[in-house]
Amino acid sequence: MSRPQDPHRPSFSFGNPFKMILPKGSYLSPKLLALLNTFELALAERFRNLKPKDKECVLSLSWMKLAMELLCQTHTDIKTIITELELPVCDWDDKWIDVYFDNSVKLLDICNAFSSELSRLSQGNLLLQCALHNLDASSSKQFVKASSSLDGWRQRISSKNPRLENCFAILASLTETLNLPKVKNSAKGKVLMQAMYGVRVLTVLVCSILAAAFSGSANKLVDLKVLDTCLWAEAFTNVQDSINGEIRNIFSSGRVALLKELEGVDTSIKKLHPVVKDGLGPVEAEALKNYVLDLGKAATKLSQGLDILAKQVDGFFQILLTGRNALLCNLRAGISVPVPVHKTNKVEGKAVR
Known about the structure:
The protein is an all-alpha fold. It has one domain (about 10-335). It contains nine helices and two strands, in the order E-H-H-H-H-H-H-E-H-H-H. The protein has a two-stranded parallel sheet with strand order 1-2. Helix 4 (about 140-160) runs antiparallel to helix 8 (about 260-280) and helix 8 runs antiparallel to helix 9. The radius of gyration is 24 Å and the shape is elongated. It is a single-pass membrane protein. Pfam families: ROH1-like. InterPro entries: ROH1-like. One of its GO terms (cellular component) is membrane. It is found in: Membrane.
């Protein structure tokens, strides 16, 4: 749990999560070891790919889209590992199943919160389109309407989404499950638990960064300490320190921290407002034309970014939901997981086991 005396830099210390899972002398067959190593090396590469060339890009919709895409790929890989392990549900420990269902419900809640925020921002984008439409006219009456729309957009963007606050409590809870259940006499179970540990670390990292970026607060960024014997540990620590450090630098600099695409729109609006409100002379008319053009480009980039990220979040939601459904089906039927299921429409609220 985060330390109350240091709210600006919560740190989660779990000791050695594999002390019970991979005790000294544990043996994995060459096949199982190769399966685990392949997964962990792929995860290490994904952590490396998360590190942006431009540090400020971490506060961008384009980086968030990449992060969610890598997260979806990794959760899909777990399904592949389960299939290749040929580990029937009857051999799953009840604790593994409980942790899986509990974590997946929490992640579904996070997805719903992110979707809510993306929808809120998209609705604000309608105000930009209205303003651009009115700015095409030369009437002072239309300029008043445009100015009102721009004011409305800025008020919407500066407001807070209460659903995001719950994300931080959920993320804190998710970190507590990283001290994995004990695995007895099951080499396949040890491989599965270690792979799932890596997935959960990536999930907490990505969701923590997105929650901080959406909420405009770095106070509750999660700093994880992971087992250094994992093949992806160095890559993870490198990207976590780099991204969390840069976000904290941006937020502590006194600058209003907006998503990069939102910042582009806000910059254009700041240039437009004085021209629209003070009236137009020959010089201002030419400036207005350029400012409107810039705002149009920024608004389009924002709209496209929101749409793409919303699809990625929905894709992650579907992966979680179908994974839960597959495990439920197999628990009832007593067969190996996963079982293909039809895509389920997104729902609001918690999915119930």
